[in-house]
Design goal:
By secondary structure, the protein is α/β, with parallel strands linked by helices. The chain has a single domain, classed as Vaccinia Virus protein VP39 (Rossmann fold, 3-Layer(aba) Sandwich), CATH 3.40.50.150. It contains eleven helices and seven strands. It has a seven-stranded mixed beta sheet, sandwiched between helices. Helix 9 packs across helix 11. The protein is globular and about 55 Å long. The chain starts with a helix and ends with a strand.
Length: 272
């Protein structure tokens, strides 16, 4: 099995995505999506951005490498009465060969395509399937950032074995120089690329420690870290470190709920 597919099918990201819905709607509102547009949500999960885009009247295709997330997205679309305009398919961000050139007015990928193993191929594919005059909107976590996700991944990696030779960190997408270089190889001049810091909010209806346990049980990278930590006898140390992180960053004003903003790099690419 594709190792990326194995990673994202290991857990159940829908359990994390529930805390991300409101910010997903904000992303869609800011993307300039209007009725009748053709929209691709790449690395879509269960539709945190795809479904709000369809509610605006767009015709939306969600593509994700994890089969169970595709199934969950199609269920959510059906429950919302959007099956005619919002569908989900299994696919690989590195190779969208079944999609014709210039098919979409907007290509959106929020913390999805950044995890694909061949970043230049990802950039080329996103550019290829976007119409001239269309736009790519990409959200990427930022390496070394002090907010939640970068620190969660940093701590998790410190307990995990070293990555295989040739591994390209997904966090490299959070550096503007890499973004410009990768889209440059896809034929986009730097003038057509903008990068700015933005905020995504996790809103979890439970205390920070419970949110940590949700990541531990359902988020592939964190699950791997806990498995590695357990083999070293440091499982409790990892959980304690993550609970301290989540409690420190909680801005809900109550220890019984969790509201944590996380900084990301918003990339906008003008095609054509």
């Amino acid at each position: 099995m594709n190792p990326n597919k194995a990673l994202w099918e290991k857990g159940d990201f829908t359990r994390i995505a529930v805390s991300m819905r409101e910010s997903g709607e904000d992303v869609v509102r800011q993307a300039g999506i209007t009725r009748g547009m053709q929209v691709l949500d790449l690395g879509c999960g269960d539709g945190t951005t795809a479904i709000p885009a369809a509610k605006l009247g767009a015709d939306v295709l969600g593509v994700d490498i994890a089969g169970h997330l595709v199934a969950a997205g199609n269920r959510r679309a059906a429950q919302a009465g959007l099956s005619a305009t919002c569908r989900f398919l299994e696919g690989d961000a590195c190779d969208l060969g079944s999609i014709e050139n210039g098919s979409f007015d907007r290509v959106i990928t929020m913390f999805g395509a950044m995890f694909a193993p061949r970043p230049v191929d990802v950039a080329r594919e996103m550019v290829r399937v976007t119409r001239r005059g269309g736009r790519i909107v990409m959200g990427n976590w930022i390496p070394g950032d002090p907010t939640l996700v970068a620190q969660l991944l940093r701590i998790s990696m410190s307990y995990a074995p070293p990555p295989p030779e040739g591994f390209v960190s997904p966090m490299a997408w959070g550096m503007p120089t890499n973004v410009i270089e990768r889209f440059g190889e896809a034929g986009i001049a730097w003038e057509g690329i903008s990068c700015e810091r933005d905020t995504y909010v996790f809103d979890f209806k439970g205390p920070p420690a419970e949110f940590v346990d949700t990541f531990r049980q359902f988020y592939g990278p964190t699950m791997n870290a806990f498995e590695a930590a357990a083999s070293q006898g440091s499982e409790t140390a990892l959980r304690d470190e993550l609970v301290q992180l989540f409690e420190r960053q909680n801005q809900s004003g109550s220890p019984a709920t969790t509201l944590i903003p996380a900084t990301f790099l918003r990339v906008t690419v003008q095609v054509g």
